[in-house]
Amino acid sequence: MNGSAMSGQTRPPALSMRGIDVAYGGTPVLREVSFDVPAGVLCSIIGPNGAGKSTAIKAALGLVTPSRGSVRILGEPLRSVRR
Q1: Containing H/E element for 23?
Q2: For residues 68 and 21, is the Cβ–Cβ distance under 8 A?
Q3: I need a surface site. Which of 22, 36, 42, 80 has the fewest CB within 10 A?
Q4: What dihedral do alpha carbons 7, 10, 11, 13 form, nearest 10°?
Q5: Are 17 and 69 a contacting pair, CB within 8 Å?
Q6: pLDDT per residue rounded down to tens, the chain (83 residues)
Q7: Distance (Å, whole) CA 52 – CA 25
């Protein structure tokens, strides 16, 4: 058991997206996307072509700016952890 588990504290998700909206040229691509990826978990994103998988990853990396919502990495806002 690690120290945080013993003290009753929970670790923040490695990635947390809340209410993300992204549009390209005024055309909505993502609407109200929310999910958490726990630390230490291997995750995949699946779906049909054009479903917004790449756009969600780009938003998580800060390569596109959501018009709404928030992205957090290990509990911190994306802008404070991105270099």
Answers
A1: strand 15-24
A2: yes
A3: 42
A4: 180
A5: yes
A6: 454 455 567 899 999 999 999 999 999 999 999 999 999 999 999 999 999 999 999 999 999 999 999 999 999 999 999 87
A7: 15
